[in-house]
Amino acid sequence: DLRVSLSDAVTTVFSNGMIQVSRNLTLSDTVDGDSGNYSCQTNNTNNSLDIRPFELFVRVAPNITEAPGELTVVQAEDATFTCVATARPRPSITWWRVGSLTPVMEEANVTSITEVMSGERVLMSNLTIESAQPSDAGDYTCEAENEVSNTSATATLVVHVVPSITFPPDGYTFYTNEF
Predict the structure, then answer these.
(1) What does the pLDDT read at residue 145?
(2) Left (φ > 0), alpha (ψ -120 to 50) or beta: where does 150 sit?
């Protein structure tokens, strides 16, 4: 594999007569699939075998695997967006209203944000706005972040208003022209 290289041996002789031979194993362009258990095996002139296990943990940037899309509701219906992200380590998800500097949860009209974790890499987050109003319409962003980087996806909420007929107040009289 061209992504794996082994350095030339470097020999060091210590004053007490011990000899150390060192080599470096390099994995370049690591991917998530490279994570796992490895071992270093050495033997010496006495045919003594020494095996030292170690674990490689490749950190992976977040990827949104299920992005929220456009959602249309009728006024007073609940609106729920779903965002699923994978990463290693597992990402955190923050919801933002486009144009706002504070996360959505801090806005009074947001009812809940629920999160479901699956394994060590996947996080699903649901943003629910109960009894959506026209003022809730607009764009919302799901931002997935871990120590490697962040990524985001934007969704749009459309709120249709139910038509209503307004009657004039009591005591108000209409006159029509008679022909």
Answers:
(1) 95
(2) beta
